[in-house]
């Protein structure tokens, strides 16, 4: 009851007040912590950006190192190199040049600036090789990297070259020969690929005129500094190693740490946080005007929407008032796809159905009155008819004209079926078929052997209920307008079956048929419900179709198909109701 005062105002006022309450109050409430939220969003955005850049950088390095290792695998499996190492016929220098040429072609050394050197060291003392990229293991024993590593194993290592104090990343691959007879491996030597760490690990933007957005520090698993793209930031490595919680924020920098899969090297990416401060300042300068603009827009759109919405509601109310006065005409629809327009469409649909129902009931009442009038006109004492037929049959029997006896018997059964009050509107398929067979018997007596009739009746349909008198008009139409007009003997087939929870009846003939225009016109005319005065060859079929729709529903009725000179087909669809079940009679 406490809201009664609010609902006493017009809906326009209610909408404006409600919209402002649910929009302005939350908007003003979030202003106090909007800066905090936006700053966190900026931090998160930059952090995600740093994470993506780090991931992409590490991925590129891993792919690059994997490619170099794959090149070493290709060289180690090169049959020309393997054959040259064990060839005792050629000079050591010729073999060395041959091996050096294969190594150069495999690595494309002329195109790879990151490669410092690639050497093959043979361990076969009896077949020495010497060349630009080939030598003996014993010759390598005097070099600084060999002495430092003590025993060179397959894998990777890094060191600072004494020649120019250059950091070098080396990959080692053993060269083995497999004996195909006993599957024994014999080591022939090893390959050593040296890479300039400065070129391998340089930041992605270092080749451009502008500075890179981040700096890179590479150190070994022994915490030895190997490479730095910004030597002035080298003290950050010690600070990083001395922190216990491995924080990402360090002296104004965001630090991202990764370990390379293909080597035992650690990589630090350093991002300067001055971008964060710039973006936070930009956010502060942007928020207040936006908040002011949003507030004004909320007020404007609340007023505009409330006015339009209340106008649509008023239009719907006006339609209700017109319908209340008895005006069932459908006026222009209310635009939109919301509940108001849906309510308007449903209301208009209801008015249309109500108007159609009134007209339909009026037409049905007229048809009932007309049928009653015809019944009164055609009423004849049934006993008089039966007695007359029995008299005719007796006279025919005396004269031994048994065809007339048979015709009188069939005609008497037809009279009983027509005038019987115990049948009701619905009868069984078996009863309707009996009536049709009596009718066909009499018609065949008239036209002789002008046509043959075939029955294709499903046994389980005998006790299915159907409307009475729906088959005779259709069969009569097929015989009189299709079969007897042709010079040859025709056929008429009557089929009854169940399909999709419906009773299907088909009357099909091979008579003269109809063209497509006449078929379309017939299908249209039999579905006209308000044409009570039309007469013609289609009136019987139209009446049957309308009876089916009135008694069973709009989804049931007759469908006509025909082809000129090839016959016609009449399909009747009825609800599947077995004897004893309740009908809508």
Characteristic terms for this protein:
about 575 residues, five-stranded mixed beta sheet, alpha+beta, five-stranded antiparallel beta sheet, elongated
Secondary structure layout:
Elements: H1 4-7, H2 11-76, H3 79-85, H4 92-107, E1 115-122, E2 134-136, H5 137-140, H6 144-149, E3 155-161, E4 166-178, E5 185-196, H7 197-200, E6 215-220, E7 225-228, H8 235-242, E8 249-250, E9 253-259, E10 265-272, H9 274-324, H10 339-378, H11 382-398, H12 402-419, E11 426-428, H13 429-447, E12 451-457, E13 465-467, H14 472-483, E14 490-499, E15 502-509, H15 516-525, H16 539-552, E16 557-563, E17 567-575
Parallel strand pairs: 1-2, 12-14
Antiparallel strand pairs: 1-5, 3-4, 4-5, 6-7, 6-10, 8-9, 9-10, 11-13, 14-15, 15-17, 16-17
Helix pairs in contact: 2-4, 2-9, 3-4, 11-12, 12-13
Report a brief summary of the structure:
With 585 residues, this protein is α+β, with helices and mostly antiparallel strands. Helices cover 51% and strands 20% of the residues. The protein has helices spanning 4-7, 11-76, 79-85, 92-107, 137-140, 144-149, 197-200, 235-242, 274-324, 339-378, 382-398, 402-419, 429-447, 472-483, 516-525, 539-552; strands at residues 115-122, 134-136, 155-161, 166-178, 185-196, 215-220, 225-228, 249-250, 253-259, 265-272, 426-428, 451-457, 465-467, 490-499, 502-509, 557-563, 567-575.
Q: Any idea what the shape is?
A: elongated
**Rounded to an integer, what's the Rg over CA atoms?**
51 Å
Proportion of beta-strand residues = 15-25%
Fraction in helix: 40-55%
Pfam families: HATPase_c (PF02518), His_kinase (PF06580)
GO molecular function, one term: kinase activity
Membrane topology: Multi-pass membrane protein
Protein name: Sensor histidine kinase
């Amino acid at each position: 009851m406490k809201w009664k005062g609010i609902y006493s105002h017009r809906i326009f006022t209610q909408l404006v007040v409600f919209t402002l309450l649910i929009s302005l109050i939350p908007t003003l409430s979030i202003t106090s912590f909007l800066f905090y939220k936006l700053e966190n969003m900026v931090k998160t955005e930059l952090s995600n950006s740093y994470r993506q850049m780090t991931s992409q950088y590490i991925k590129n390095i891993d792919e690059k190192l994997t490619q170099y290792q794959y090149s070493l695998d290709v060289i180690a499996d090169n049959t020309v190199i393997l054959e040259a190492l064990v060839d005792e016929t050629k000079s050591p220098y010729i073999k060395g040049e041959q091996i050096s040429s294969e190594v150069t072609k495999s690595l494309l050394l002329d195109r790879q600036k990151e490669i410092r050197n690639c050497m093959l060291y043979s361990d076969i003392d009896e077949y020495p090789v010497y060349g630009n990229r080939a030598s003996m293991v014993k010759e390598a024993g005097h070099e600084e990297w060999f002495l430092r590593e003590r025993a060179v194993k397959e894998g990777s290592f890094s060191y600072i070259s004494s020649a120019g104090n250059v950091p070098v990343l080396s990959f080692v691959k053993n060269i083995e020969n497999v004996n195909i007879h006993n599957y024994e491996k014999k080591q022939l030597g090893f390959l050593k690929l040296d890479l300039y760490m400065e070129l391998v690990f340089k930041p992605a933007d270092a080749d451009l005129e502008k500075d890179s957005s981040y700096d890179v520090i590479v150190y070994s698993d022994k915490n030895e500094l190997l490479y730095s793209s910004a030597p002035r930031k080298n003290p950050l490595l010690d600070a990083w190693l001395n922190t216990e919680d491995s924080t990402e924020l360090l002296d104004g920098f965001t630090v991202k740490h990764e370990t390379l899969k293909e080597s035992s090297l650690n990589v630090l990416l350093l991002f300067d946080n001055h971008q964060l401060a710039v973006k936070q300042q930009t956010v502060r300068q942007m928020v207040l005007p936006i908040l002011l603009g949003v507030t004004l827009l909320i007020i404007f759109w609340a007023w505009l929407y409330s006015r339009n919405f209340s106008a649509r509601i008023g239009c719907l109310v006006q339609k209700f008032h017109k319908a209340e006065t008895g005006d069932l005409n459908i006026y222009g629809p209310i635009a939109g796809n919301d509940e108001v327009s849906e309510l308007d469409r449903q209301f208009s649909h209801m008015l249309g159905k109500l108007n159609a129902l009134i007209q339909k009931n009026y037409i049905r009442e007229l048809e009932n009155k007309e049928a009653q009038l015809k019944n009164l006109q055609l009423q004849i004492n049934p006993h008089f008819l039966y007695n007359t037929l029995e008299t005719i049959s007796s006279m025919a029997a005396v004269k031994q004209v048994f065809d007339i006896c048979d015709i009188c018997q069939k005609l008497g059964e037809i009279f009983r079926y027509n005038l019987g009050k115990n049948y009701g509107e619905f009868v069984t398929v078996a009863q309707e078929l009996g009536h049709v067979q009596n009718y066909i018997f009499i018609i065949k007596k008239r036209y002789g052997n002008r046509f043959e009739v075939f029955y294709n009746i499903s046994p389980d349909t005998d006790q299915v209920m159907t409307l009475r008198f729906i088959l005779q008009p259709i069969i009569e139409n097929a015989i009189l307008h299709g079969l007897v007009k042709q010079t040859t003997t025709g056929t008429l087939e009557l089929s009854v079956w169940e399909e999709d929870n419906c009773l299907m009846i088909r009357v099909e003939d091979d008579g003269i048929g109809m063209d497509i225009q006449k078929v379309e016109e017939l299908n249209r005319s039999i579905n006209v419900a308000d044409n009570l005065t039309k007469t013609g060859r289609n009136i019987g079929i139209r009446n049957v179709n309308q009876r089916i729709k009135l008694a069973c529903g709009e989804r049931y009725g007759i469908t006509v198909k025909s082809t000129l000179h090839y016959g016609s087909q009449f399909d009747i669809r009825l609800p599947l109701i077995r004897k004893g079940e309740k009908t809508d009679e």
